[in-house]
Design a protein that fits this description.
Blueprint (H helix, E strand, L loop, with lengths): L8 E8 L3 E8 L5 E8 L9 E6 L18 H15 L4 E9 L10 E2 L2 H8 L9 H14 L4 E6 L18 H5 L9 H14 L1 H4 L2 E6 L5 E6 L2 E5 L20 H9 L5 H10 L2 H6 L5 H5 L4 H25 L4 E5 H6 L1 H8 L11 H5 L13 E4 L4 H12 L2 H4 L2
Parallel strand pairs: 1-5, 5-7, 8-11, 11-12
Antiparallel strand pairs: 1-2, 2-3, 3-4, 6-7, 8-9, 9-10
Amino acid sequence: MSQESRSPGAILTLNAGSSSIKFAVFAHATLALLASGQVDRIGEDSHGGSLRLHDAEGRPCVMRPVAEGELRDHRSALEAVLARLAAALPQIAVGAVGHRVVHGGPDFAVPLRLDAQSLRRLEDFAPFAPLHQPHNLAGIRAALEAFPEAVQVACFDTAFHRNHPFVNDTFALPREYFAKGVRRYGFHGLSYDYVTGELSQRFPLLAEGRVVIAHLGNGASMCAVQGGRSIASSMGFSALDGLPMGTRCGQLDPGVILYLLEQEGLDAPAIADLLYRRSGLLGLSGLSNDMRTLEASDTEGVHQAIDYFVFRVQRELGAMAAALGGLDALVFCGGIGEHSARIRDRVCARLAWMGIELDPYRNAQNATIVSSEQARTQVLVIPTNEELVIARATRNLAPQTEATA
């Protein structure tokens, strides 16, 4: 994927996590997907790291195995990705790179063309998302080194929620903290952006109404949307808040943190490890953070973990409907939301009072509309596509003539 030959141009999207990188390549002119994949278990101490690459049809590409040391850090992992992309797509040159950045802070509410100054500003928000932001920025630095002439664009998970009403944007703390950036940001914004766009295209009347989107996966949140605009989000200052997740606790009484500090003697890193990595479905079940594994298991801990997950989704749905003043549609997305008919059924089972009623056959088939014909409230399943949102924003900020010059 040489930088010297730039015809045809392509957009590379990167979603860099703590130990993984999701990536995709799109044709600049059409945004047709050319390839996609993921690197897992990046790091000096990782063993058994993997790199998967699929073509435009989703078929796995045959590649040489990952060698020892190839995934020692984000820079080397990106180099490994680029080497395999060059073999799979030898005629493609990258003219622009789009990045998922978890936190845009109070400053950034739209995608941003990156420069040295904006990158330094994004570093200031690392304390707001200490387990995400540094790795996002590491991916950007690796891409800057790999593609020094390419346009680099940041797309923010918080941006979709930046127009919340004040009451859904603040905590009841002294106002000085709000001014310092301690406020409810909301996350999974790229996913919500995509789903609301699909709603407006395919279900325009619903898109103008009162919609709750449930992004349920290893990370999970819910968003109240009216007329395509975020009104409220279950996630707040950090990606810990709201629903229980694969390994994250979700909503927690702040007094628990004080107890852990004062009575258990845990310091900040130990508490962060507990809340981010050892809680949620994993902590409750004692088995796994993967809902597929839990659904295939039959222990009391597993049943209780799933029960708690379902209960919190139902409870949050009630809160979101209250923020909207009613409900016209519920949309499921994310790995669990898109693929687990059982979880959708259990979430909706006690919600007839909200006009929600599933069609068992449609739900089992993972149809787009899974509600019954008689239901007052539509229930939909719309697969999300964060990478395409990033690619669209990147193309807007990197014109074709520049990307292929």
